[in-house]
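Q&A FORM
Asked by: J.P.
Topic: structure of NADP-dependent oxidoreductase domain-containing protein

PROVIDED:
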Amino acid sequence: MLRACGQLGIAFVPFFSIAGEARTAGPSRAEHEEVRSVARAHGVSHAQVRLAWILQKGAHVLAIPGTGSPDHLVDNVAAGAIRLTEEDLRLLHRIDPSAS
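REPLIED BY: S.T.
REPLY: Here is the structure written out as tokens.
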């Protein structure tokens, strides 16, 4: 669906927490490891990796991240400058192969 929206020029606004399942249930083992690995490689937080991943899916994908403090806002803005590599994207794709 995401690809079709892009081809048709339709904006896509994902409706889920950037924290994923971790917000309520704690990170799943697979999710935690892939995101953690990419975050470590870029020297950023898990949330920043998730936001960068969403933003890198296409110009038609609009992220609306929440923020609880000025520092969190700065982190959200900084996530827009993170450029995930093809290897990062392959690794993150393992979390949810249907999300492309």
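FOLLOW-UP: The chain has a mean pLDDT of 85.
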